[in-house]
Amino acid sequence: MEQLAFTYEMGVVAALLAFTVFLFVSELIRIDLSAILVLVMIGMLSYLPGLESLANVNNLFDGFASNAVISIIAVMIVGAGLDKTGIMNKVAAVILKYGGRTEGRILPIISGTVGVISSFMQNVGAAALFLPVVSRISSRSGIPLSRLLMPMGFCAILGGTMTMVGSSPLILLNDLIQTANEGLPEGSKMEPFGLFSVFPIGAVLILTGIVYFLVLGRWVLPAVPARVDGTTAQGTQSYLKRVYGLKAEVFEVDVPADSPLVGQILADINLENNLYIISTFYRGKVSMVQILTAEIAAPCRLAIIGKSKVVHSFARKYGLHVRPELDVFSEEFATTNAGIAELVIPPDSQLVGKCPRELQLRKTYGLSLLAIHRGEETLSHVETEDHEPTAIGLVEFKPGDMLVSHTRWDNLTRIKQNTDFIVVTSDFPQEELRPQKVGWALLFFLIAVSLILFTDIRLSLCLLVGAVGMLLSRVLSIDEAYRAVGWNTVFLLASLIPLGQAVQNTGTAAWIAQQIMFILDGWPLWSLQAGVAILATVFSLVMSNVGATVLLVPLAVSIAVAAGGNPAVFALTVAISTSNSFIIPTHQVNALIMGPAGYKVMDFVRSGGIMTILFLVVSLTMLNVVF
């Protein structure tokens, strides 16, 4: 192999690489701005004598139209479309139902599911689709989003090693093997890999990632406070206690068919028992908007707001069963769907002088009135710290009354247009869900996935088919699609693409690879394979994993043949190791989750450093066990 000379251009590229890593780790400026700065520097340096090969300035911004960047934009739009129909809410509810609300149970379900999905579609697509699901799970369980997104993202990357269509390097590998075979003697030619040839390796890697975060997650994962879709909405219990002194919780209670409660009126039950029945579940239907003069029909379930002692006493009196946690009502009381709202009655409101029962407040406005704050006094069915319970359903409204109500956010959005109320609460998700569009959303999602799995059409075009379909069917408006795109992620990735091209085009990557291989010359076979894996890992951090694979597979095959190793295993080592991208957020998935979770680069260095070592050890071990 001819020795490559280290050139002036290589030195400049190496300096740019070091500067980029310094900016990322130090975070002197925002990471996306750092990437844009590096892009500008590459462009300007290319005009200097001797640096013309650094970048083709006419194609400097081609990264913004690259397959990877357009794919990310499209998959964000597709994910937002699915989320708009409420599907992601239902997925989150199912995960919470089976996973409970503890990190130790939720984390493996989310991470394992995303890992399996990413084995058949691009890992960034799987991560983007599950991003709103994890956000909702975080808000409902109280687990910080930062403790769930990194395990999900890492497992999405690991899932790409489970099939030969799970990542671009593995898709490309068989073509590279075919090309490499042309220069090999007959006895050394490699056989192409089957679809599931790498399944055992990928499965063990996903399992390793899950176990890693379960065991060490408390130390390596940051705990950025959880947020609810960018709002500061609070749970019903904590809000009522903190603001109004209402010592109340939400309970789910089973009412058997033979209960003496059957036939009694909701309003009378509330008043006589110092509690508040806020929702019912009867004949498979949850209803939060019913008339308080309605009678109890059983068997049914009730969602009751009240003091724990009062509710359990009430249950014993009428032969009811209090469930340990919310089940059928969990979706209705999720802070992403509903919560506590404060509304003021203005002087010119038509509601002045009328009582909630007369107005049928629940049925007409979708407001479940929990308390009326009047001056220094709080009136409520539920006993407060300073006052006895009051039949607020019969209290006539006065100008200036503050109504504390539980309502769905879509109801509150409509009420904001009603001049009879002044909506004080502003920090709630003011988005309109479109469940009637679920069919269209699923149709175009399935079309996009089918195109990805069963055709050779370019990934970005497949995903754009789904995105455009959702826009044309009005699952999303075009303005909502623009808002759904994380433009910081787009600029981060697009701006780094020229740096990766410079590393490759100037021969810097080939020179680095050659120096390492010369150092490893004569070492045992296993150390050569480890060196190839480490080299592929490093290259995947500073250039595209496809570029690293194209560059290193021929080199790895040559090393294997010279050392008497299996060239196919060495080639596969490269393709799998280019997925070992956890230390800095240059991988598409890491860039995607960085903003929503509030991660810093050092969070990836800390968590990803250990994951990188585990990946190397496990993948090399499994490669030699399986092959």
UniProtKB/TrEMBL annotation:
Keywords: Membrane, Repeat, Transmembrane, Transmembrane helix, Transport. Pfam families: CitMHS, TrkA_C. It is found in: Membrane. InterPro entries: Cit_transptr-like_dom, DASS-Related_Transporters, RCK_C, RCK_C_sf. The chain crosses the membrane at residues 6-26, 33-51, 63-82, 151-173, 193-215, 439-472, 484-503, 550-576, 604-626. Residues 238-320, 328-421 form the RCK C-terminal domain. GO terms for biological process: potassium ion transport. GO terms for cellular component: plasma membrane. One of its GO terms (molecular function) is monoatomic cation transmembrane transporter activity. It is a multi-pass membrane protein. This is Citrate transporter. It comes from Falsiruegeria litorea R37.
